[in-house]
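Is it possible to get an amino acid sequence alongside its tokenized fold?
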Amino acid sequence: METKAIIVSAYPLVIEGLKAVLGISGEVSVISSATSCAEAIPKIKSLSPDVVIASFQLPDGSVCEIVKVCKLDNPSIKYIVISSADQGKYFEEALKEGVHAFLLNSVTQDELIVAIKTALADEIYIHPKLASAVFGVKRMANDGSIYLTPRQKQTIELMAGGYSNKEIASHLNLSVETVNTHVKQILRKLQAKDRAQAVAIAFRNSLII
């Protein structure tokens, strides 16, 4: 079954570009679009899409206003934000409101599909370059104190690619339980509260490239 999506952006060219990208994937059906909060909210309420892909800033507000209103009627809808890094100071609010993914304007087709799948699994997807804006990630001491085993490095590289623990297990020919253990150890070593923050810290400290 195709995922139903609504695209929200002030720029028609952005909407058409995203429609084209998602159309090629064959996995997502764009059922409508809007260019403002006022236009988007009634469409989201009436059409109940699986995901809403929106520019962070719109002519009459931000995506946060859309989420605040629409989640009251349908809390299962997932929201994916596409923005520039300089809007990062607003991301914490968006995360608290219920946004599931943060992507750069230069998002690729593969990354967009991964973000959608991650959001639908009720997990958070954040582009590594935006993670510091969302979490306030700081560089850790570069004194050799951060050591990941080769298998842990393979695991976090796949985490950065949006793979779930089950997919990582299949890719590395490991049991899911073993991958769960690796992920827990990675989070502990990097002092991260979740996998998205762990990936951001790993990038910041050149543990993965």
In short: The chain has a mean pLDDT of 85. The chain has ten helices and eight strands. Residues 3-135 form a domain with the Rossmann fold fold (CATH 3.40.50.2300).
